[in-house]
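# nightly structure sweep
# worker-07 picked up a monomer target from the shared queue
# config: single-sequence mode, recycle default, output format = structure tokens
# input follows
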Amino acid sequence: MHKYQISVAAIAVILMGVLGWQAVKSPNVVQEDVLLENVTAEISLNARTLFPEEILASQHQKVTVHILSDESGEFHIAGYERVFPLEKDTLSTFVFQAYRQGRFSLEFHPIGSETEHMHDHEENTANHAHEDIHIGTLVVVPR
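# output follows
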């Protein structure tokens, strides 16, 4: 009988841990199994607000992003210096390797904005004028 009580208590503790983990997951975060080989994020950009606002990946994973935007521009992953074109009301897909650990700003660069300014990079030219709007975060955890 004593072994039965210990087993029930152990199962209860495990269930509480699992349920507690589920309770703290944010609905605004793309939740992926970070042990998978590939991560797919389906996100939207509406009124310059990204949903979900965070993409989670493990280092060295291939990340595929499907994004629908209500405005044309560029999707920029700061720290990775990757820029992907977005067309208004068109599903855009891009793939990159999450090779660096850390938290990286996801930015939107609108096309044709009246408030365009030069990006803070040495290679600025007239073709690189744009506004940096922070819209979310890429989180890459160690594998």
